[in-house]
Structure formats: C-alpha cells, structure tokens
Amino acid sequence: MPDVLIASCAAAAGKDEDEPLLLAALAAEGLTASSADWADADVDWGAAAAVVVRSTWDYAPRRDEFLAWARRVESATRLLNPAGVLTWNTDKRYLRELADAAVPVVPTAWAEQPGEVDAALARWPGDVVVKPVVSAGARDTARFAPAARAEARAAAEGILASGRAVMVQPYLDRLDAEGETGLVYLDGAASHAFGKGALLAGEALGPGLYAEEEITARTATAEQQALGDRVLAWVGERTGTVPLYARVDLVPGEDGAPQVIEVELTEPSLFLTTDDGAAARLAAAVRARLS
C-alpha cells in the first residue's frame, strides 16, 4: 500500500491535470502514492498513512454517501482535508456565515422552499444566476435574463425537488471582461493565483462531470490577496484547522472591488500547471503532515 492515497472518482480518470504533477512531486519527496476511486469499496484506505481528497468530482448527487465515506476514512487514517471541513464546505450556505462576518461576498438570496423562490428571483432586476447549494463543477447552474424569469423559476423548483436549497445571485457584468481570480493556499500559505474565464457569458453549460474552463496564470492584486488571506484566517477559526489545500474564488463587484463567490476546501482543481513550484509545495505540505 502506498504512503499516500489520492481520492478521486472513476469518471475523473485521466481528466485531472493536477494528479500526475502531484504524484511526481510526492515521489520526489520520497513518498509512494497512487489514486483510487473514493466509492470503490475494495480500497483499504486505512492502510495508507494519509488520504488526500482531490478529484472526487461526482460526490454532489450522493453527498451523504461521500461524507459517510470521509468519516470512515478519518476513523482509520489521516484525511486531508478533514471530514468536518468537507461536511461544512460541501453546502454553499457557508457563504451566509462569511457574509454575517462582514466578509464581502457576492450578494445572495436563498430559497429553501418553493414559497421563497419568487422573492429570491425578484431581488435583482437584471440577469440572475440560479444554482444549488450542493453542487460541483458548476453543474445545475444557469444564468437567466429578466425575460426568462419563468425558466429561472422552473430551474429553481427543479433544484428544490432534488432535495437541495437554491441560491440566486445577480450576474456581475464585469465578469465577462475580467473573469474570476482564484487564490490557492497550501498548508495555510498563499501559493499561487490563476484567472478563470466567465463560465456563463455565452451558451448554457452542457452535461458532464464539470464545466470546461479557460484557465490562465494570474498575479493577484494586493486587494485580492488581502481578502483571500482574511477568508483563510476566518476559515481556520471557523473549522479549527489549517486546511492542507484551499481555494478562494473572487469576482469583481459592480465597483470593481473583489467579492467572494466560493471557498473551495473539498475537491477543487488547484491548477498546479499555472505555477512551476506549486506541485512541489503541495507535496512538501503533505510530507509535513506525516512527520
């Protein structure tokens, strides 16, 4: 059994660009490592010194099963990130907590039952984005123009029917030109940043494990970095741990100031290809957790 098992999923085989870089970097650290499907009942996760959650991108439709798996693994070995962090982070209502802590978050209306949908959709006059609180890879997420409120309502009701609450956010026009900025943290320290093209600027997202994204290397501004650092510090206080990996996704608000759209602590792509030293930093952080 390898020193480190990387938790992935069958559908992600050959699709996670981070995985080969991480495996090579772990080998350079003197650690044996391999990947396995988190849902494979034949895997002896407890035989590894650590299990690192990575491309478990199919968890959303069976979140309860995924979290039960995480708890079992954690009872047998070191799980990174921990099960409690995964439980908290796989429901996007954590953004409500961030907003309550006065962190600038994309304005969000919440609908947890059908009677709340119309008010959520009426919150903003322009384009809105409808998404579930439990999702991965931007699945079940769509942008709707003002003339398409009926379609937006149908989408929201479909999400509710699946047992998930609904988030409604205004579409931020600056996204079309500026995109998102992702800040990656490894073992509590800023590692690198990347740019992501706007996902909802054109056609609706198609079916698949995840939405295809346009990713580029990017240097965060001082304002973006300060917000990311603030979020990570808050996460540490909220969860009681320093996550092995974290990704803070920022978008420009109407005034251009950064706002948090997501904090990824479960299975985020870290886009290690955008920074030559990132994989080595992640492997070193894993090694440090084992010492």
Automatic annotation (TrEMBL):
Residues 95-291 form the ATP-grasp domain. Keywords: ATP-binding, Nucleotide-binding. One of its GO terms (molecular function) is ATP binding. Signal peptide: none annotated. It comes from the Bacteria. PROSITE patterns: ATP_GRASP. PANTHER family: GLUTATHIONE SYNTHETASE, PTHR39217. This is ATP-grasp domain-containing protein. It comes from Geodermatophilus normandii.
